[in-house]
Amino acid sequence: xxxxxxxxxxxxxxxxYELSGGSEFEPEQLQTQDIAVVEAAPEAVPFDQPQxxxxxxxxxxxxxxxxxxxxxxxxxxxxxxxxxxxELTLDLRAVSGNRVNMRTxxxxxxxxxxxxxxxxxxxxxxxxADGWARIRVVGTGxxxxxxxxxxxAI
Length: 154
Prior knowledge:
The chain is of the alpha+beta class. Helices cover 12% and strands 23% of the residues.
């Protein structure tokens, strides 16, 4: 086996050598340019004279003339608002299985938070398309996920 590996290595090396030009290989010559270096000596600035520089003039955009404000009549009377009554409907359900796993996410791959017994009341918060319900246990307020088919209407 060792002879086979060494022989293969030598054969591949020779093949690479020949395919890349062999002994006739000449590397490509890169064109280079000489760069002239110019050293500029900074001018001496006297410290006893103030240095004055001017900023470039700025062009200020002129806005269109503003129209005068119009006076609108106002009333201090506030119309009586109808009280908004929001009906809060809770989707309360009861656990139908003997001991049902409540999980951290919508699927059996998620960790079990608690086991709920038959008759435990829970509020359904949301239901996914694949049949998992996010619930809040009425007695403890704990939130988790369980299969919707294991919940019966109260």
